[in-house]
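Predict structure. Chain length: 325.
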Amino acid sequence: MRISVIIPTLNEQEDLPILLESLSKQSCRDFEVIVADAGSKDATVKIARKYKARVVPGGMPGVGRNRGAEAANGEYLFFLDADVRLPPDFLEKAADEMDSRYLDLATCEFHPDSDLKLDDIMFRFANLSVKLNQDMNPRAAGFCIFITRRLFRRVGGFDESLKLAEDHDLVQRASEFRPLRVLRNTFLKVSIRRLEKEGRFSLIQKYFKVEMHLLFKGNVKEDIVDYEFGNFSEKSDNNKWVDDLEKKIIQMEKAYGKLSAPSDQPGKAGSGATKEKNDLFETLKAGIGTLVDVITKSPEDSVAAEKAKEAKGEGGKGKSKQGKG
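Prediction complete.
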């Protein structure tokens, strides 16, 4: 067996069939699929079995990936998440490149399953960070880690005691023996469901807090941020003002796109449209400038600021009513 694809799941009936369908159409046929399920309450397990995947008991992502690896027969272990999308030659190109470059540890570029420029910029930055750090501070997202079974066993797999960043920890330990490299010949797409549910800038803030913890305190062994596994349904409302900023930027991006589109009627996109585009651009710059505060404040600070803002608004209303009386 050449490749074992390992997918940790929890209530993934919406996204898992898309991934499994793309796996069923792969040009490479020498692979197996192992779904490590953490007790899904929906049709996840039924869907996995429909696609002939092996189902093993899972848990949190690190636990599920380890259980999947224990059941694996492949020379390569490909760790994916249920919400990734693969081109039809993904497995073939990835395994061939690992063979030709003698790689034991790899990741690949990941692109957003989205048409928004904002998402494209965020993912470009994330990919650049992975590439620049592959020697000095190697890390890879858990949804696209590719490792030989012998190296995985040598480092003891994922550390199940960690609450977060167990994927980065695995890569750093494995890179002490074999270097991490970013594949050049293929990529995958990732859904933006977490970005939409938690808010893009709120999520950046969480990642920043985790990065600071890793930098100054080491591995994350306690819950320092709320981070749900699987296809969770509740949208975070911890950072309402940040989410509102995100919505405004997305609205401006769409409006700017409409203004930039060529007009069917000559003369329609005149000075008025140009002025509106400039106004949108200046507002967009101001909004992005606010992100400096977003990533340097803790979630608790942001909630406190929002409450203070609301309290101030209520106080102003009270004074207004007294003046009228």
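Summary: The chain has two domains: 3-192, 237-313.
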